[in-house]
Each structure stands twice: as C-alpha cells, then as structure tokens.
Amino acid sequence: MSDLAQDRILRLALGCRLSTAEGQGDVLLIPEGAMRLKGPARTILELCDGERALSEIVLELRRRYPSEDAARIEMEAVAFLTRMRDRGVLEDV
Predict the structure, then answer these.
(1) What DSSP designation does 5 have?
(2) What are the Cα distances from residue 49, in Å, to 22, 71, 91?
(3) What fold characterizes domain 14-88?
(4) Rounded to an integer, what distance in angstroms lies between the CA atom of residue 44 and that of residue 57?
(5) Based on the number of CB atoms within 10 Å of its own CB, is 2 exposed (0-12), middle (13-18) or buried (19 or more)?
(6) Which of its termini does the chain have fewer beta carbons within 10 Å around, N or C?
(7) Residue 90: in which H helix or E strand, if any?
C-alpha cells in the first residue's frame, strides 16, 4: 500500500489496544497476540484517536519533539502508520 493521504483519519482497529498493565512496557495488544513498541511508536498510536488527520498527528509530533528534523518526523511517522494500517492495526474513520 502506498503512503497515507495527509487528510486520512485513523484509529486503532477493533480488537487492538495499547496495554496499560503496570511494568509491561509499551505493548500493543492485537487479536493475534502482542507487539512490543519501541521509540515513539506508542505516542504515535495514541494520537490515532479517530479525530486527528495524519497532518495533525505529524504537527503534534513536531511539537513534542522540536529538536528532531521535521521532515524525518513526517517520513518516519507516515511509514510507521502505513505499516500498521497494512497489518490491520489501524483502520480509517
């Protein structure tokens, strides 16, 4: 699948949720099991609340990580969200 459109609004798919268990670390629970999340992956997925467009998610990430390169933030966020959508973790609103 190609990169996502900037106006795309995403949310976690049915059956997927971020773990809130104490001491478990950043884990995404999916119907097939669990995925350990690294770096800002949890933050990115938390921003997929079914209300923000992809462009708004990128803007928020730039705000939270001002010392990082803005173009790199966008490229890596879009690539990550595309992979998650392709795996069925995210769905369109």
Answers:
(1) P
(2) 22, 23, 11
(3) Arc Repressor Mutant, subunit A (1.10.10)
(4) 7
(5) exposed
(6) N
(7) strand 90-92
Burial 6-15 (b: 16+ CB within 10 A, else e): eebbbbbbee
Following DSSP, what letter does each residue of 21-64 receive, concatenated?
A: -TTS-SEEEETTEEEE--TTHHHHHHH-EEEEEHHHHHHHHHHH
Query: What token pair was written down for 60?
Result: 């928020």
Question: Which of the 8 DSSP states describes residue 7?
Answer: T
pLDDT at 16 over 70: yes
Q: Which residues, in sequence order, are CB contacts of 60 under 8 Å at separation 6+?
A: 47, 52
- Structure tokens that stand for 29 in this block: 């629970």
Q: Are 18 and 27 in contact (CB under 8 A)?
A: yes
